Amino acid sequence: MPNLEINGQNIEVDTGISVLQAAEKLDIHVPRYCYHPGLSVAGSCRMCMVEIEKMPKLAISCHTQAQDGMKVNTESEQVKQARKSMLEFLLINHPLDCPVCDQSGECDLQNYYMEVGQYDSRFLEDKIKRKKAVPIGPHVILDQERCILCTRCTRFCDEVSHSNELGVFNRGNRSVIDLAPTKTLDNPYSGNVIDICPVGALTEREFRFQCRVWYLSTRESICNGCSRGCNISIHYNTSLSYKAGGKRVQRLKPRLNPHVNRWWMCDEGRFGYEFIDHNRIESPQLRAAQGKLQTSDWKQVLQEVSTGLKTTLGQFGPEGIGVIASGQLSNEELYLIRKIFAESMGVQEIGYRNPWEEEGFQDDFLIRGDKNPNSRGAEELGLKSDVRKILEKAASGEIKILYIFQHNFESPEAQEMLGQAEYVIFQGTNWNKTVEVANAVLPGATYAEKDGTFTNFEGRLQRFQQALLPLSESKSDIEILRTLAQKLEYPLAYLDAEEIFKEWRGRTYQELEEFGELLNGQKP
Amino acid sequence: MSSPFEFTSENQERFQQILARYPNKRAAMLPTLHLAHEQQGHITPEVEEVVAELLEVPLVDVHEVLTFYTLYFRQPMGRHHLRLCMSISCWLRGSDRIKEHLKNKMGVESGAITEDGSFSWEAVPDCLGACEMAPMMQVDEDYHGPLTPDGVDHILEATEQGQEITTAPPPASTTSKALPIQLISEHFGNSQARELDWYRKQGGYEGAQKAFEMQPGEITDMVIHANLRGLGGAGFPTGRKWSFVPQDTGKAIYLTANADESEPGTFKDRYIMEWDPHRLLEGIIICAYAVGIHTTYIYIRGEYVRAAQILQKAIEEAYREGVLGERVLGKDFQLDVHLHRGAGAYICGEETGLLESLEGKKGWPRLKPPFPAIVGLFGCPTVINNVETLSQLPKLLLKGAEWFAGIACSHHGGTRLFALSGCIKRPGVYELPLGASLRELIYEHGGGILDDKKLKAVIPGGASAAILTEEEIDVSLDFDSLMKAGSMLGSGAVIVMDEDVCMVRACQNIMRFFAHESCGQCTPCREGTAWVYQILTRIAEGSGTPEDIDNLAELADNMSGTSICALSDGAAMSFRSYVKKFRSEFEYHILHKKCDLEEKKTTVDA
């Protein structure tokens, strides 16, 4: 366990970590481009050079192992001069694209320039011209002029996605990063190169020219694309409604979680946020006698729904009610459903899994075949009834009222059964096939619009936070259920998700561990 | 038009033989591409795909290699291909005039093919390693020089007709009678030395025999005491390098003989390989036995086609005669030696750049530590020694460390080969004891300045070495003295410049080389070498600014000690010295927007 001194501060670290990593533990940031904790060390940008006592030259801190007794200075004049000169070298051929570059505001050339920039360029030659704004895949655009050849992207394609699309070709200052001949950057993780590119050489097609990053707010969340539960940040803009056609969510980025997704997320999850602002059910709906859905209001719809439930309960008992919850709902919502329907009403038939939903693509990296973020949560909370049976009962008339959360029952079989059901309540976020046969439609909120927790496939409990207000007239499922419970005369004491969580797990969100915790209490 | 590619059945056979030389398939990358290039004339996308498949590597890796090196054509070329050397020594002897002549004769620019498809040609900034015959060019596999416009015409005609070229053969070695010692150059000029029997009769392989009578550790000690230092450029003590190799890792230990000789002005290793290949093999055997090595790769630059052929023959003969193979010289010691041709990259002469290239990748030098002695070829402990260093071993073993150390006039032992070129009467290879006088080399052995002009400047150790003014040439040719003088012994390439040489253009020529050869991996070298070349070009062509001079000095500092390997340091040491010592010439160019030697020397550009 070497003990070393960095900028006058002492620290003991594990054997084998680099000086740069040791500095990070002291919250000392050493500027760097090519170093990335999730990739091999390249040592080529030379930006992270530091002064180490007794070493004749400046050493790159990303590659120098922290040794006992080392004395490191990351801010000496010599170090600052070296940073300045490396930055100057990188900028001589760099295009003056800031005004039109998406990276502006989160660009490491800009950021380090504010610290060690030269201001007056002394480069009088012609800048090299290279390929510009070339889509190299469904999600990524390459700009070779902006590239500083840090090789993070080529190393990613080699070491993480194992897809080997990108390489460095030619030699010297004719070097360029480009696709291998005949290849496209279309691996399932292509979007990650956008995150790791320190400059605007690799940018997101979907995000291009949409919104300046300084208008974005961020909130920590969990991807709802599959049961992996990759940790993400939702980047949204709600202050300037004229940006990007009014889209609120502008992009999703992965967050570091060493136990779940490390620094990465898949493209399907990354680009799967459109449903949050698109095709939403924006107001409650009731099906009129003539058979068409009509826009209604919460008072009316909740009145009809609660009356229906009360009546059915009274006449046919809890056997007359069937609930199909969803692996899309949070633990808190599922807990509430169980509280209201199972515990208070005595409903037995509560399921969550759509039997017609086939396992999707799964790989040995992040992507799971179960495309629901909280199946495990529903499983653990005991909502295990067979959904096909519930639908059959609804079709046969045994179940009078069917309460469906979020599911898109589009198979002909399911559609037929639903068509035969007496009364279908749908609570969910987007228009789908189930809505088409529902009698009452309660617009719910997406995961981006509420607080809660998901339990991923390996039993890890992870928290997501509300970024946006529910769109239009939609409401969070907790609020809907709470109001419903009131109308059903099961008043609940909870006001919000955290209170439910506290009752369920016995602690607050604050007390939840940083990277989530395993349900069975095991440490990773 | 895409046409599928397949090796001929003969080449499939050869491909299997290639594979057998390496412990993994990727390492066969360069030889496999050479084989395909030989069969097809150029590398097509279909070839790339086949190679990727055969070697079980991603296609992108093949493409990186293909675009990194300069010897692989990607388009069909002329029936005959010419490479005209434009590097410093050839430039000093008028390569630009030859270039003009070639352009007119061919009717097309450098890089193009003649209309009838007979010739393609390119003026290349990288030294081809034949400065004794400057100005020179490579025609297909052969070197020709010194070139005159008439000589060029004859070569072109003869080549097209398939006739023999009758221009004067290059001077073998210049063994001046004034030289007291001919140790490793004793057989230069005598093609009999290529034959194993003849070599043996002259005492060849006796050094290796002597080695086998000693303990491996004793040999290493002997080499340490002899003060033999690396003769490729870096000058690291050879015995000490061997002593770093751990013997207890359980891994194989490798030797790579560095025959990549690409430092401008250097051509002495080529002499050894062309005239005395068995001496190199003998040195390899001695090193291998001392360090516990059973597989050696000789990494030879791709341009040295004739030298490679001669070496290959010598290796095959050595195997036949039991000098290499299962029982070397009848002893219980196995040693395999394989020839591995490069594909055109100076940076593959850098130790770890060489290793990366041998492993089948682009020649990007590695981060150090770990050093090759610990983690080298294929992750195993590896010794990398220059051809000349290894060739010193036979005599060293025979006659002993004290004798060797005593030959030199300096702390460092033995002799070394000096490659003398430029504005000199007798360019060629000269063997002198370390510590000999530079003045003596130039005036006594080299005959003095061509046309009896005045000496203006000398590069004492290859393009990476700081230049010396004519007031500084009273220096001893050894590692310490030259370092004290602010330069270095380097590769032993001594390049002489006369009073009519424009130092701005000379500097521009040198930086053109470094910019062309920078591998591009790290920031200061990739951007710095090219930027400095651009500034020098501007100054040379009359649009320099006063700030340029101080900027250059600062850039030299920014490029020193900040890169992954020493290319950047070498380039910086070099151009810093020109700007410092010949500042007035730079100032003249900037102020007057022309050269004060304009009438006498013409343009550089390659």
Describe this structure in words.
The complex is a heterodimer of chains A (524) and B (606). By secondary structure, chain A is α+β, with helices and mostly antiparallel strands. Chain A contains 15 helices and 23 strands. The model of chain A has no long low-confidence stretch (mean pLDDT 95). Chain B is α/β, with parallel strands linked by helices and 606 residues long. In chain B, the strands form 4 sheets. Chain B has a 5-stranded mixed beta sheet. In chain B, strands 2-1-3-4 form a 4-stranded mixed beta sheet, covered by helices on one side. Chain B has a 4-stranded parallel beta sheet with strand order 7-6-5-8, with helices on both faces. In chain B, a hairpin with a 5-residue loop joins strand 9 and strand 10. In chain B, helix 22 runs antiparallel to helix 23. The longest helix of chain B has 18 residues. Classes of the chains: A alpha+beta (524), B alpha/beta (606). Chains A and B meet through helix 2 and strand 8 of A and helix 3, helix 4, helix 21, helix 22 and helix 23 of B.
- If you average the pLDDT of chain B, what whole number results? 94
* Assembly status: heterodimer
Spatial sequence of strands, sheet with the most strands of chain B: 10-9-15-12-13
Note the overall shape of chain A.
Answer: elongated
Query: How far apart lie the N and C ends of chain A?
Result: 23 Å
In whole angstroms, how far apart are the ends of chain B?
32 Å
Assign an overall shape of chain B: globular
Q: Helicity of chain A, in percent? A: 25-40%
Write down how many β-strands of chain A occur, each being a DSSP E stretch of 2 or more residues. Answer: 23
- Helix count from the secondary structure assignment of chain A: 15
- Which runs of chain B of at least 5 residues are low in confidence (pLDDT < 50)? 601-606
Q: Largest inter-chain interface?
A: A-B, 44 and 41 residues
